[in-house]
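User:
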Amino acid sequence: MEENVEATWIGNIILTESNDLTRDLYDKSRYGEPIEKQFQYSLLEALYLLERQKFIVKSGRNILNYEQFLKKSLKLEPNFKIRYSVFKDLRKRGYIVKTALKFGADFRVYERGVKPGEDHAKWVVYPISEGETLTWYDFAAKNRVAHSTKKRLLLGIVDVEDCVTYYEVKWIKP
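Assistant: Predicted structure:
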């Protein structure tokens, strides 16, 4: 039986000790970020690893199950479930997904087999609910961010059943 990683919820991040399990998760799939003698995980990564039964997450003295973790995350970030649907779908498809806040996007996604640090991300991704409207100005701004960072724009549209449809947008010169 596989051993679970013990993680601690602190503020809006998840921390673990650096050990064989956490180093292996990082080396193989780039989960988390090494920080001194610990690893820091996004809420999205931690929920995904909790759902896959790789993590046990503690908040204070409580051990959180999936529903409790999700509820707590939604209080911090109302759009969390839409973002998680896209994150989970991309991870299940074999892509490495990292945050892209410095690019003005939700995620940066690496081509299958490419790890951060080995090459650049191929896409910047914006998760959007199927019922959400996007103005032409918002759309143009997202496309401009992708173009200026030399990445492709990927819109992840999440329907009411949490299924994701992707649209890749790129500039063309006639």
